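Why should sequence recovery work at all? Because a backbone constrains its sequence more than one might expect. Tight turns favour small or flexible residues, buried strands favour hydrophobic ones, and helices have their own preferences. The token representation captures these environments compactly. In the example below, the structure is given first.
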């Protein structure tokens, strides 16, 4: 069981539980357990049964699919404070993707039973969870639009600017480290690694970014936002 102030704070900040009061959060925490996954190890495989959902405390997890040809497609990267597996839990189906730790990772596993108990006991609990799921769905729809309807350059620029929002930066210049290698990030953007590198090179030539390994320096946010390749 993982029931401490840190666990309560993590759960309270999840979009899924944003609308819930402290007593409800504390009850959910009673059904949480910590699990550590070493870098490179699987969290679960595609087809495994889903008995709850996960929250990343620290580390990073990738959700991915492998085609019959052996090509891996990264669906999503999950970092600290983010959750995964909720939709599958409600659908009562096995996992449609596999999850793998990209770094040594500490997870909270929230049991399906504790969530379902809350849904059956209190109608307001269901309403609040629906509000949280709607927030998550809205973000996923924005990602789909960004990664499918935009050009390769727009996808990369959108990804870079998103880091500013996640870092809660409002300045016109900032540094950040890429959270994964370029191959994985390119896969999440539905472009090739070569295209990702080419776009970064073009942005560097335009004086908008400086890239060294995983270190990215955004030199001018406003000009980057207005850039049109």
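From this structural description, the recovered sequence reads:
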């Amino acid at each position: 069981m993982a029931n401490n102030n840190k666990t309560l704070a993590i759960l309270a900040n999840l979009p899924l539980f944003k609308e819930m009061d402290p007593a409800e959060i504390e009850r959910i925490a009673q059904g949480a357990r910590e699990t550590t996954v070493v870098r490179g190890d699987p969290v679960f495989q595609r087809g495994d049964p889903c008995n709850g959902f996960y929250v990343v405390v620290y580390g990073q997890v990738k959700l991915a699919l492998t085609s019959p040809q052996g090509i891996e497609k990264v669906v999503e990267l999950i970092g600290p404070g983010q959750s995964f597996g909720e939709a599958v839990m409600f659908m009562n189906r096995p996992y449609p993707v596999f999850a793998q730790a990209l770094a040594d990772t500490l997870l909270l596993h929230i049991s399906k039973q504790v969530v379902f108990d809350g849904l059956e006991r209190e109608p307001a609990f269901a309403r609040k969870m629906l509000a949280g799921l709607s927030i998550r769905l809205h973000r996923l729809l924005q990602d789909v639009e960004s990664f499918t309807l935009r050009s390769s350059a727009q996808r990369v620029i959108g990804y870079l600017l998103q880091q500013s929002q996640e870092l809660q930066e409002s300045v016109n210049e900032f540094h950040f480290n890429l959270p994964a290698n370029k191959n994985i990030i390119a896969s999440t953007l539905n472009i090739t690694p070569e295209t990702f590198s080419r776009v970064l090179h073009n942005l560097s030539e335009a004086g908008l970014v400086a890239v060294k390994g995983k270190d990215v320096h955004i030199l001018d946010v406003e000009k980057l936002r207005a850039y049109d390749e």
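A few observations help interpret the result. Residues 19 and 128 are 5 Å apart (CA to CA).
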